[in-house]
Amino acid sequence: MTQRKYAARSSWKRIVKRHYRERYLETTSFTGYVTRLDLIEVTHPLLVRYSEQEIQIVGDGYSWLQQFPAGQKHVVTTMFNAHGQLIQSYIDICLRHGRDTTGIFWDDLFLDLVLLPSGECLILDADELETARETGLVNQDQYAAAWMEVEMLQHQIRTKELLFQPLALARVHHDLLNEA
User: Fold this and answer.
1) 91, 61, 98: which is closest to 170 by C-alpha?
2) Most distant pair of Cα atoms in the chain: their distance
3) Is 180 helix (H, G, I), strand (E, B) or coil?
4) What distance in Å separates the CA atoms of residue 79 and residue 69, rounded to the nearest whole number?
5) Structure confidence at residue 172 (pLDDT)
6) Beta strand pairing status for 103-115 and 31-42?
7) Cα 178 to Cα 170: distance, rounded to the nearest angstrom
8) How far apart, in whole angstroms, are the C-alpha atoms of residue 73 and residue 94?
9) Parallel, antiparallel, or unpaired: how do β-strands 74-80 and 86-100 relate?
10) Beta partners for 25?
11) Residues 86, 117: contact at Cβ < 8 Å?
C-alpha cells in the first residue's frame, strides 16, 4: 500500500499558525482541486539541499500551493517565499488523488520531480520507490507507472508542452486562493 498524504498537513507540528483554503476549479486550462497553505508562523525554517545549493522551502510567511489535476497521477506543490517569489515546484508522483472525509489526499508513489526557477529538473527519491517495490509497499505495475509518469512529465516540461499547465497556472491559482 502506498503512503497517503493530505493537503492541509494538519499533523505537521512545525507549523504554529496556518491558514488553509481549497477550491475546485473547472476551466478550459485546469480541472481539479487547488489548495493553498499559508505558513504564517513556523517553529523553525526548513532547508533542502540539491547538489551544491541549499533552498529554504518553509519559513514564516511562506505559502504552498497544491494543484490536483483531475485524472492525472501527480500532484504539484509550488512553494513561495514570504515575498511571493517562487522557490520551487515539487511534483509528487501518485497512484491517485481525491477527497475523503479527512480532506484532499494523494496516495504517494514515492518518486518525485523538482523543478527549480533556473529550469533545472531533478528526479528525487528513486531509492525510496525501489525500496517500496522490494518490500511490497508498491507492486511492479505501480512501480512501472511511477516511472512512466515521470518520463511523461519530463517530456512535457522539457518541450514546454502546453507550458505544462499546472506550472504555468501556479501564480494565477496562488493569487486566486489569496482572495478566498
Assistant:
1) 91
2) 45
3) coil
4) 17
5) 84
6) unpaired
7) 12
8) 5
9) antiparallel
10) 32
11) yes
Average pLDDT over residues 36-41: 97
In this predicted structure, what is the pLDDT of residue 179?
A: 63
Query: Are 44 and 14 within 8 A, CB to CB?
Result: yes
Note whether 107 and 145 are within 8 A (CB): no
Q: How confident is the model at residue 130 (pLDDT cuts 50, 70, 90)?
A: very high
CA gap 73, 107 in Å, rounded: 9
DSSP string, 2-36: PEEEETT-TT-TTEEEEEEEEEEEE-SS-EEEEEE
CA–CA separation, 50 vs 56, rounded Å?
11
Parent domain of 143: 3-178
Q: Say how many Å lie between the first and final Cα of the chain, rounded.
A: 35
What count of other Cβ atoms lies within 10 Å of the Cβ of residue 124? 17
Q: Looking at the whole model, is its pTM more than 0.90?
A: yes
Contact between 3 and 110 under an 8 Å Cβ cutoff? The reply is yes
For residue 141, the domain's CATH number is 2.40.380.10
Cα(42)–Cα(33) distance, rounded to whole angstroms? 25
As for how many domains the chain has, the answer is 1
d(CA 139, CA 132): 8
Q: Where are the alpha helices (DSSP H) in 113-169?
A: 126-135, 140-159, 165-168
- Half-sphere exposure at residue 26, Cβ-oriented, CA atoms within 13 angstroms: 0
73/92 Cα distance (integer angstroms): 9
